[in-house]
């Protein structure tokens, strides 16, 4: 039976609706809730600010606008709006309607290489998780230049997308009890770039006390695409790609605030041409450490590996892991651009993380590159006939190495438990492998576990006894039990 419900938050009243899962379980849905002021005009490139209150009852019945983006992987057109800092809340029960025990809260951070993605309900439906009696929160955050550009100084210190997430977590602390959620039992979880964000929150002083458990799926701040060591160079190259050449941070920031967000997104391919070398992954703007001169609260005071070595991370229970064949995601690029295979054969070091390169010992770097090539390809060149090896190498370099190191360091230095998983089920709900043209390869692809955690509208209903739905039951039970009890 459908109906409406009204909840009072610090900013004002929200009208949501009562809906049912396919299995007849009722829950309450509140969508498009603003958790910060729109980051427009003078607030572009600034840390988020508290949302304005409103009078009367605000409808929370539809998803908020996604943040400005173009999905390079799926070749989607530009979409989004700068007024995009919205979150959704899904709850089995509202306290004002009946006495209820506060439930564990799970807060989701979507992936998308820090440049695309949103939490639209058609892709991140709450039904599977809700049926396990938890409260789910999903959020948008600023992407691309708007979320992650940094001038490397106090003008635009960077990490605004991550600071958006902190603001959403603060909103949860202030308001989630009104939706039946327990602010003292919050699990942060995310996948890919979202998993990296989860790990960065473990390292951030800004996030202290805002969550109590963490699940980082296929993402780590130690991945080669997750952290920018030279954000200033990238910011000024970006300005040059837009036709504005300067070495003054304030002038660059003032100019970039005048540019339409669509042009900011479309300029990225041109800006890539200023890069001296190919960057691993599709990320361009990404998280970075912030200058100590920053006038804002600092999200990340140092490089992730430095903070981890110094034990400067939150000691909370952690699940981390990956899918079996992460690297299938990479075949789309080489299938669409066969010339890349020749380029990689000529300069294999383009596939190797730059962090291995030491100016003090370039001979050792070339030695390491040769050893990596030998390990995966023997004496063969990369070709369309041995793409399985390319996939294995790509998955190890881009995802598994960082995730494994993350688990190893946390388990050695943290007093809280660390759990490691590999998702191996290759079923009909896996969408990513098909989307990137990798169906002929064995195992699940990067992102293929997500439809086993979230309801996806485009997927047809399956028999509860099917292997796919048994896998849904298993992973959702594992994730929600962890959220409830650790």
Automatic annotation (TrEMBL):
A GO molecular function held by the record: carboxylic ester hydrolase activity
Family of the protein in this entry: Belongs to the type-B carboxylesterase/lipase family.
Domain of life, per lineage: Eukaryota
Pfam families recorded: COesterase
Gene3D superfamilies: alpha/beta hydrolase (3.40.50.1820)
E.C. numbers: 3.1.1.-
Protein name: Carboxylic ester hydrolase
Residue ranges constituting the Carboxylesterase type B domain according to the UniProt record: 5-486
Species of origin: Cryptotermes secundus
């Amino acid at each position: 039976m459908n109906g409406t419900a009204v909840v009072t938050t610090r900013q004002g009243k929200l009208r949501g609706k009562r809906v049912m899962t396919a299995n007849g379980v009722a829950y309450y849905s509140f969508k498009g809730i603003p958790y910060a002021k729109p980051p427009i005009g003078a607030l572009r490139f600034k840390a988020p600010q508290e949302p304005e209150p409103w009078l009367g009852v605000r409808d929370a019945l539809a998803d908020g606008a996604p943040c400005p983006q173009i999905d390079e992987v799926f070749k989607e057109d530009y979409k989004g709006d700068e007024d995009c800092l919205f979150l959704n809340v899904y709850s089995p029960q509202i306290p004002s309607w009946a006495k209820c025990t506060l439930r564990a809260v799970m807060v989701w951070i979507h992936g998308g290489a820090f440049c695309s993605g949103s939490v639209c309900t058609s892709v991140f439906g709450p039904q599977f998780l809700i049926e396990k009696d938890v409260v789910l929160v999903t959020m948008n955050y600023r992407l691309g230049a708007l979320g992650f550009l940094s001038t490397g100084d106090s003008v635009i210190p960077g990490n605004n997308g991550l600071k958006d997430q902190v603001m959403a977590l603060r909103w949860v602390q202030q308001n989630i009890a009104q939706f039946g959620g327990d602010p003292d039992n919050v699990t942060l979880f995310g996948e890919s770039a979202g998993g990296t964000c989860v790990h960065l929150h473990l390292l951030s002083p800004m996030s202290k006390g805002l969550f109590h458990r963490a699940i980082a799926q296929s993402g780590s701040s130690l991945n080669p695409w997750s952290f920018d060591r030279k954000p200033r160079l990238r910011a000024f190259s970006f300005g040059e790609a837009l036709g504005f050449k300067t070495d003054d941070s304030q002038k660059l920031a003032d100019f970039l605030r005048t540019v339409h967000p669509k042009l900011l997104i479309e300029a990225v391919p041109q800006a890539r041409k200023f890069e001296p070398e190919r960057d691993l992954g599709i990320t361009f703007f990404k998280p970075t450490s912030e200058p100590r001169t920053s006038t804002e609260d600092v999200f990340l005071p140092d490089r992730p590996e430095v903070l981890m070595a110094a034990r400067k991370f939150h000691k909370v229970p952690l699940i981390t892991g990956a899918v079996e064949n992460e690297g299938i995601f990479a075949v789309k690029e080489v299938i669409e651009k066969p010339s890349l295979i020749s380029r990689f054969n000529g300069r294999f070091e383009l596939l190797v993380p730059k962090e291995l390169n030491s100016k003090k010992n370039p001979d050792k770097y070339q030695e390491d590159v040769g050893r990596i090539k030998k390990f995966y390809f023997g004496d063969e060149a990369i070709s369309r006939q041995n793409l399985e090896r390319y996939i294995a190498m790509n998955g190890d370099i881009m995802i598994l190495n960082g995730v494994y190191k993350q688990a190893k360091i946390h388990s050695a230095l943290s007093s809280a438990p660390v759990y490691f998983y590999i998702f191996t089920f290759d079923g009909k709900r896996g969408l990513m492998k098909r989307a990137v043209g990798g169906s002929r390869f064995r195992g699940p692809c990067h992102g293929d576990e997500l439809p086993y955690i979230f309801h996806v509208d485009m997927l047809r209903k399956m028999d509860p006894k099917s292997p796919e739905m048994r896998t849904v039951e298993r992973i959702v039970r594992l994730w929600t039990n962890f959220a409830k009890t650790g």
